[in-house]
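Q: what sequence does this backbone want?
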């Protein structure tokens, strides 16, 4: 008796929403149906529910994009100069594997860092880039050698100079 009642209730519900023999059950939009529908801004991405879209996909707002940059309705590629913390940066537009070196920008003093290579001073302590100093163990600032020369005490023969600064002797 219960099974018959359940079948009758399901049939009555389907009839109430206009589904019967020969009619398709309505499909609700989802983020995996390979169609741009619901609140999606492109196929299965963007909007409040779906994951952010990749570069080149359509968007309405920055949060629709993985790069967090929506420009003229299209998700832009992340850069080290877009004013947004993205692209594996340690702080906005600096540091990280994509911005610390090779044409990118290392972070200035007091910016967030994950390691020494993220910082212009090459000194990251407690997650913050430090200013160059004469006691940090690194050739930085205006130093001629490790913690000597420039605004630091003069370098003398007892101080080891980096190999690229040594003059060959014949």
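A:
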């Amino acid at each position: 008796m219960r099974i018959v009642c359940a079948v009758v209730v399901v049939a009555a519900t389907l009839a109430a929403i206009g589904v019967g023999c020969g009619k398709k059950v309505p499909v609700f939009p989802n983020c995996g149906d390979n169609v741009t529908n619901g609140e999606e801004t492109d196929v299965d991405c963007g909007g409040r529910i779906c994951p952010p879209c990749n570069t080149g996909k359509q968007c309405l707002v920055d949060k629709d994009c993985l790069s967090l940059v929506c420009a003229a309705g299209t998700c832009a590629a992340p850069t080290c100069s877009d004013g947004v913390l993205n692209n594996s940066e340690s702080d906005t537009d600096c540091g990280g594997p994509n911005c610390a070196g090779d044409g990118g920008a290392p972070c200035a003093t007091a910016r967030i860092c994950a390691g020494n290579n993220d910082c212009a001073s090459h000194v990251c302590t407690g997650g913050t880039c430090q200013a160059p100093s004469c006691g940090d163990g690194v050739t930085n600032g205006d130093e001629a050698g490790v913690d000597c020369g420039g605004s630091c005490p003069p370098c003398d023969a007892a101080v080891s100079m980096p190999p690229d600064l040594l003059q060959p002797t014949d």
